[in-house]
Each structure stands twice: as structure tokens, then as C-alpha cells.
């Protein structure tokens, strides 16, 4: 294939589109675009409570990227965002834009965030829960308006210019992610655990034009975007550096990152710019191995499905225990307990179920992409791959998709406790931990959607 190599250049701050020419209805068609979503004014960055002030510069640009694929009557628009989360109100507004302005059904839209801890807060509620000055909440809401206009723009650009393409899939490996749940005599601690489960796969979807030139590449990895630590500069962390490298080496191509089930995965080493750059280069190198591989094209067939899986919460603590927490000197603990008491004041009150999107797309009848909402831990990647495996097929599992606002523990992680299972709920607007059947509910939804989109298994 005629894929060109180039040198790293400046990150583009304007809309970039690829496409044009007649659309071949008999095969794959694609349109892709990229637009900057870097905040136009100072904002409070998300992800680290240790920050004591707003952003004071830009290390890497933040972008929204879109890839619209169509084949055999099926369509999927993938939108990736260099953000930490997608709260429910933001997701609802994105879905409305896609539906009302671009004719996309909810099941035809997959929105994924990289979970960078170097992007802006996107919710005034989060600002308030963190005890910050309300001015930053107003800035967050203003940024959301700016963001939605850019998402509208990038979707419109991708849909407007489509071209015939060949789509291929391959998987590489990259080893810098490490499990961060370390068992100790006092319970699970947030620290590197070299014996914990990981997912080092780098799934890649390669999109080339009729001349064999790369026009888009989608890739995934399961790891928190936290290599840089609490810097005050806007950045996309290692993901931003990987995307920057790939797009510099393939001028005109658009690279999209789908965050995997990295809820309990951290980059190692981490905490400075050098680490983030090195991990970005390593990940880009893994993607390149698939970009330049001799791969057969996927058959032009595409099916998509989506459902909302209701996740129940465990019973709330007794009122007197919540009262003690509401008097805690820890502001996060106190604000969370006061909110729970106000929202569910009577003994026996139960919070409504948490809506988790479960989306499945099948490419060419052989590649099954499962996209889960929230921040799933790595156990989900292992189980979904094992249970959906089929002869001659591949399974790709993404997290951080569509509605992204809370950790999603597995049965094991929930039973063990620790940050992802119980501790993080006070930072993520959840009333408490999920009920013990959380994994069973999610996997049932995965199997329902996979069966609906894949159709009945082939006869032996």
C-alpha cells in the first residue's frame, strides 16, 4: 500500500477534512475530519484535585475527530474527543446534534473520550462538587457551548465529503500499561501491581483510499491518560502525543483513539512530560506496524446496535453514618454525604438505576467492536473477548464511550473494594457503589447486542 512517511510538524489548529469524489455504493465509503477543541480561554482542568489554579498554557492541542463509515446500508459515525469525561447532559446534546442536524440515529453514533487529565472540566456541577469558585463552573458551561459547535462542525465535514475506501483490521501490542490495584494487608492500594491483569492489545482499523494511501486510522489501548501528572498546561497526555505523531507521519490522514477498558490501568513510568512522550511514541509505533502490514480488506458489511443497561446501586448507608460523613473535614466526603442525605432523605430510599450504554458494531462480519460506557476495569476486556470469540473473527473492546461519568467495576473489583470499586464514588456523583450484579447485567447486555447485530451463528 502507498502509505507515506513524514516528519513531525506543528499540530493543526484548523479543521482538516479528507474526502471527495463519487461514492461507491457497492463497497465501503468513509468521510473523516478533525477540528480543534482547545479551550479559547482559561479553564479549570479536570482530573486532579491537587491543582490549585486554572490552565496556564497549552502543551498539545485538543481535538474532536470524526470518521463516518458506511457499507451495505449500515452506518457508524465515530467521534473521538480529547476530554476526561462525557456527562449525561453533554451526551444528550451531542446525540441531539447528530440526530437533528445530521440524520444520525443514536445507535449510529459512537462517542469516545481519551480520558486525558489535561483537558477542561465540562460540567458546572463537577466544579461545585470540587468546591471551586463558581466562575469556573460558568467557564465550563461556556466551553461546552464551544465544544458542541465544534462537534457539529466535525460531523458535518465528515459526512459532506465521503469517498470509496478499503477497510482492514489488525492488532499489535504495547506494554507500558500496568495494573494499579495493589493488594496489601490493609486492602487494595492505588499503586503499580505487576501481577495484576492487563490488556496490552492495540486494535487498529485501517482506512485507505483507492490509491492505497492512508486516510484514517482508528486504534485503541487500555490505559489511563495520566502520564503527565497535574501539570497546568492543556494536554492530551500520551494519547495526544501518539495522535500527533501518526498524523504528522501521514499528512492528510486523520487518527482516532478509542480508549479501552483502562479503569484500573496506569502508564508506567509516569508523572512527567518525557514519560508521556515516550509512551505516545511507543503506542504510535505499535499502530504503524499494523498500518504497514499486508492485511486483507474487510467485506463491506456493517451492523450496529445499542442499548442502555440499567445498573443498580447497593443499599445506601444508614442515615446516622451519612450524618457523620457530612461533618467530615474532607470537603469531598462532606459534600457527597450531604447530597445523598438531601436527595434520598428517608430510610429505605433507593437511587434510580445508573444508565450504562452498551454498543456493538460488526465490521465485515468478522470484527466485533463492543463499546461500553463509563470507565470499565480491564476484567471486562478479558471476559468480552473470551465470550464473543468466534473462528476467524476478532473482538475489540472499548470503554469510555457515549456516557462516561463513573468507574465500572467488575464483580471481582467490587468485592475487593479499593478506589475503582468504592472509593471513587464521592468524586463521580454516584450515590454509592454498584450492586453485586453489575458485571452480570453488563455482560447480558453485551450478549444481547452481539447476537442482534451478528445474527445467528453460522452452521458448522
Please provide a brief summary of the model:
29% of the residues lie in helices and 27% in strands. By secondary structure, it is an alpha/beta fold.
Descriptive account of the structure:
The chain is an alpha/beta fold. The chain has one domain. The chain has helices spanning 88-102, 124-129, 134-160, 237-249, 273-291, 319-326, 331-343, 379-388, 411-416, 438-454, and strands spanning 16-18, 28-36, 57-58, 63-71, 74-81, 109-113, 163-173, 177-184, 187-193, 201-208, 214-221, 233-234, 254-259, 265-267, 302-311, 354-363, 367-372, 375-376, 394-398, 407-408. A hairpin with a 2-residue loop joins strand 4 and strand 5. The protein starts with 15 loop residues before the first strand and ends in a 6-residue tail after the last helix.
Descriptive terms for the model:
460 residues; alpha/beta; nine-stranded mixed sheet; 20 strands; globular; disordered N terminus
Task: Tell me the series of helices and strands, N- to C-terminal.
Answer: EEEEEHEHHEEEEEEHEEHEHHEEEHEEHH
Helical amount: 25-40%
| Radius of gyration, taken over Cα atoms and rounded to an integer in Å | 21 Å
Q: What structural category do the secondary elements indicate?
A: alpha/beta
Q: Summarize the biggest pleated sheet.
A: 9 strands, mixed
Q: What proportion strand? A: 25-35%
Q: Roughly how many Å apart are the termini?
A: 35 Å
Number of strands: 20
Number of helices, counting only DSSP H or I runs of 4 residues or more: 10
- Uncertain runs: 1-25
Using the alpha-carbon principal axes, give the shape.
globular
How many domain units?
Answer: 1
Overall pLDDT confidence: 93
